[in-house]
Amino acid sequence: MPNLLRRVVVSLPLLLAVACTREASAPAAAPTPAAPVAATAEMTAKLAKADAKDGAVDQCVHRCAGCALGMDGKAAMPLQVGDYTMHFCKQACLDRYAKDAAGELAKLKVD
């Protein structure tokens, strides 16, 4: 009997640790898709520069404009702006551009 009690006392913290770890690693919610945005000539010109900056001129801005093109965006978080597809790194960046693409693109520095 004391041997069984010792096993329970030793096993219980391990089981709790495994259970807590599994809850903490739950999958993130799927990104909320954004509606396509019409592009002005100024927006299209800025998007063309941002598209070239990522190394492939393919009408897809692969770098996250919400992070000043400083990191890769995710194909799972796209925004269609005119003929260009923009990828964003997180939902907050996507939401900001979906809300005011013209204003955000006007502030984006692409040199």
Task: Briefly say what this structure is.
This protein is 47% helix and 14% strand. It has 111 residues and is an alpha+beta fold.
How would you describe the overall organization of this protein?
This protein has helices spanning 2-24, 41-53, 91-99, 101-107; strands spanning 60-61, 74-81, 84-88. With 111 residues, it is an alpha+beta fold. Strand 2 (74-81) and strand 3 (84-88) form a beta hairpin. The longest helix has 23 residues, at 2-24.
> Could you say which structural class the secondary elements and strand pairing correspond to?
alpha+beta
For the terminal residues, how far apart are their CA atoms? 74 Å
What fraction strand?
5-15%
Radius of gyration: 23 Å
Task: Characterize the overall form.
Answer: elongated
Sheet with the most strands?
3 strands, mixed
- Number of helical segments with 4 or more residues: 4
List keywords for this structure.
111 residues, three-stranded mixed β-sheet, 4 helices
Topology (elements, then pairings):
Elements: H1 2-24, H2 41-53, E1 60-61, E2 74-81, E3 84-88, H3 91-99, H4 101-107
Parallel strand pairs: 1-3
Antiparallel strand pairs: 2-3
